[in-house]
Write a structure and sequence with these properties.
The protein is of the alpha+beta class. The chain contains eleven helices and six strands. The protein binds iron/sulfur cluster (2 copies). Residues 186-188, 190-191, 206, 209, 221, 223-224 line the site of one iron/sulfur cluster.
Length: 262
């Protein structure tokens, strides 16, 4: 186990202002914490046979921007976070390569368009499952990974590396409270607690909703992560309730939603 390399990597992440970083050994995919699990071709070593560790980073989606969703504001935030994730994971892989450890980044999404997603709603690698195995959170009824810091309002990117890095422990506590706010709020009726933690109940309905928002230039949806009460970010932004918000917030949302999309 390379403790010094992990310390150098974490220092680099700090300097890049990456708030969430976790490390999983690639072997963890073979001993998953729940069933059914994914087929072996989705494991890190199937994608990059040299992989011994997976580094997962998380960047938050700022709650007040998400509260305007669906909107051009959240659409642009989503794109910005995705770009940063790709750049950070690429740079971290480059750092590890320069240190002598073969490494590759995995881009944050793995599909070309919503149309592709509607035909085949699975990516070649799951960052959410990687984040779970790297100890960053636990799955919620809304099929996202919920973190103590930001609830489900986080996007993840990963690096597959030949370096043998000390892994982080998995979170012991299940963070989803089963409040079912996400199930009730979903405009597509795509969520069902009975499918927890195996996946989204109705991917086709979710993708159809996304396709319509994309046509209006205000995708993604994000309602099921907006309403989730878990996460320190709620306290940071003074959002102690998830109900529609007070008048100034409603006015802000109404204003933003009038512009920038169809
Ligand atoms: S993204 Fe929107 S449509 Fe999809 S599950 Fe969440 S709330 Fe439902
Ligand atoms: S909204 Fe409630 S049920 Fe849904 S993921 Fe969050 S805590 Fe779980």
């Amino acid at each position: 186990m390379n403790d010094d390399l992990k310390a150098a990597l974490l220092d680099r992440c700090r300097r890049m202002e990456i708030p969430l970083v976790g490390i999983a050994s690639a072997d963890r995919w073979k001993n998953p914490p729940f069933q059914p699990w994914m087929p072996e071709e989705f494991y890190p070593q199937s994608i990059f046979p040299e992989a011994r560790s997976v580094i997962v980073i998380g960047l938050p989606v700022h709650l007040p921007v998400l509260e305007t969703s669906p909107s051009i504001y959240y659409h642009e935030l989503y794109k910005t976070v995705n770009t940063l994730l790709d750049q950070y994971t690429y740079r971290l892989a480059s750092f590890l390569n320069a240190c002598g450890y073969p490494s590759v980044f995995v881009p944050r999404d793995g599909y070309g368009s919503i149309e592709v997603l509607q035909k085949n709603p699975v990516a070649f690698f799951s960052h959410r499952h990687a984040a779970l195995l790297a100890g960053l959170g636990t799955f919620g009824v809304n099929n996202t990974l919920i973190t103590p810091e930001y609830g489900p309002r986080v996007r993840f990117g990963s690096v597959l590396t030949a370096a043998d890095l000390p892994p982080d422990p998995l979170l012991g506590e299940d963070l989803c409270t089963r409040c079912m706010l996400c199930v009730r709020a979903c405009p597509a009726g795509a969520l069902d607690a009975r499918d927890y933690p195996r996946g989204l109940t109705d991917k086709a309905s979710c993708a159809a909703n996304s396709a319509e928002l994309a046509r209006r230039h205000i995708s993604p949806c994000g309602i099921c992560i907006k309403v989730c009460p878990v996460g320190e970010d709620r306290r940071h932004y003074g959002r102690t309730t998830t109900a529609g918000g007070e008048d100034p917030r409603r006015r802000a949302r109404a204003h933003v939603q009038k512009y920038g999309g169809l």
